[in-house]
Amino acid sequence: MMHKASLVLLGAAAGAALSLVAPQPRLVLDGATAHAAPAADTYRQLGLFRDVFERVRADYVEKPDDGKLIEYAINGMLAGLDPHSSYMDPKSLREMQVQTRGEFGGLGIEVTMEDGLVKVVAPIDDTPAAKAGILPNDIISHLDDKPVQGLTLDQAVEKMRGPANTKIKLTVVRKGQDNPVELSITRKVIRVGSVRARLEGNDIGFIRVTQFSEQTTDTLKKAIADLSTQAGGKLRGFIVDLRNNPGGLLDQAISVSDVFLEKGEIVSTRGRLATETQRFNAHAGDLAKGKPVIVLINGGSASAAEIVAGALQDHRRATLLGTRSFGKGSVQAIIPLGSGNGALRLTTARYFTPSGHSIQAKGISPDIEVLQDVPEELKARTDTRGEASLRGHLKAEGEEKTGSQSYIPPDPKDDKALHTALDLMRGVAKDPAYPPIPKTAVAN
């Protein structure tokens, strides 16, 4: 029996599964073509599981749900392997698929929970919520005349999402108005941008990549073209900000790296099975046209973000600046478990940078370390634990390294890493020990 599975890189820094890549056939145990039959000891252990299962069903203080017992057992088995293997119920699988697509049917509104009600952080530009007049700090008290009180934030968000061209009524309490406002809004397809770009000083392209979804590479290519046009031929180079990027699609990490490379290996994966050993190479065509590139990383840069940083560093195509990355160097497969049964997320391989370096539980060290000035009240919360601190993580070869600083100042003028990168790009860096920024793509 054959099932479709897809490699996945998880957002380890954010604690969330993020993404699928190109499908690959996955062989599930089925007769002689699969693994050898379990040994007698394995059968005895399965008998032990059956005995425990039946005893719990018969004697537990309250009647348990059989389906839940099986789900708990599966989760326990997978959690014992490593931090990134798990069972995904149908709802979790759907949510992950929404994240990887980077689009969903909804209103276009960023929300949080406050005092049991949904509070608007901000409407997204040019979306149904913005056009309907939703404002920051609005309180949403009812959805389709049903109170929000008692719902979790996830439950409220799920109710606001839905198929495009369907309607929902929001009851909004707004500061300064005596009576609630009722708004009927038609859902549309909302595309969540994972790339934001701007010119710094009219001559340096700044590109922020927040995650690697299906839209990332295409949006990045457009951003590079737009910045080059805006600069009118005076563009010095690009600063690519991967800080606190938890990862995402492997194929997007590869194609984003390929945007800046002319040739050479981008990443390789190696697993116990031959099908998990692959090598991915760049194609000709550096869209940045050899201009200098600086990549910003920190303790929150994980997985797919580390693939991009590692590829550009190993090829000396970019200077890495900031603090050591998270250190998630493993690959997961998503294995569907049949209609309505969710999927198995299973670690199947490690990935390696072009130089053959595994970043698992080590992370990537920047070429230039820049620590931010952290407000006193935040100092206890600005370091990530890193992959090496996760219980049950895959062990590294050699010395492991734990987390590093992941703070990004909310005001760009206080961002030491960004300003150091800008000074380097303009050739006015004050520290003569800083290495030169490569001006052309170099591939071994």
Q: What would your notes on this structure say?
A:
- The model is unreliable at 1-10, 12-36 and 439-444 (pLDDT under 50).
- Helix 6 runs parallel beside helix 7 (250-260) and helix 7 packs parallel to helix 8.
- It is built from 9 helices and 21 strands.
- It starts with a strand and ends in an 18-residue tail after the last helix.
- Strands 1, 2, 3, 15, 16, 19 and 20 form a 7-stranded antiparallel β-sheet that branches. Strands 5, 6, 7, 8, 9 and 10 form a 6-stranded antiparallel β-sheet that branches. A 6-stranded mixed β-sheet has the order 12-13-14-17-18-21, with helices on both faces.
- The protein has helices spanning 40-59, 66-79, 90-101, 128-132, 153-160, 216-231, 250-260, 304-314, 416-426; strands spanning 2-8, 23-27, 86-88, 103-106, 109-114, 117-123, 139-143, 146-147, 167-173, 181-186, 188-191, 195-200, 204-209, 237-241, 265-271, 278-281, 293-297, 319-322, 330-336, 343-352, 368-369.
- The chain is globular and about 75 Å long.
- The chain has 444 residues and is α+β, with helices and mostly antiparallel strands.
- Strand 9 (167-173) and strand 10 (181-186) form a beta hairpin.
Compact overview of the structure:
The protein is α+β, with helices and mostly antiparallel strands. The chain has 2 domains: 1-102 and 193-444, Alpha-Beta Complex (2-enoyl-CoA Hydratase, Chain A, domain 1); 103-191, Roll (Pdz3 Domain). The chain has 9 helices and 21 strands.
